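Hi everyone,

Forwarding the result from last night's run.
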Amino acid sequence: MAEAVDEVADDDMWGAIDRLHAWLDENSAHGGREGLLLRMLKLSEEVGEVAQAVIGATGQNPRKGTSHTWDDVRSELCDVVITALVALRTLTPDTREVFTAHLAGVTERTTLPARPPPPAAPAGCARRSPRS
């Protein structure tokens, strides 16, 4: 396991996504539009596994009790990210550029201040409160 972690850590993440995409293409039972749709649906399956792990980690199913750990949830979330990136790679060979540009746009629109600070009053002028 440690060797696999070192191998991916030393490698470019995007190269790993390309290799996973190529491996899936070579070993897929379905091609064309059907293969594309099934690869997109795989993401829903992985998200369902996150939900199952959360339910198990919190013991929400009285019949099963605590069947998972938060480490299981973390692992399933990683599977969601990997599956999403491979699905994106299926749609475009420019995965890195598309993802990076989209992330920058989301970050920009969600990290801007809600409203700019009010302008400073000119020197010697007191600002009146709305109730004055």
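The chain is about 70% helix and 0% strand.

Cheers,
N.
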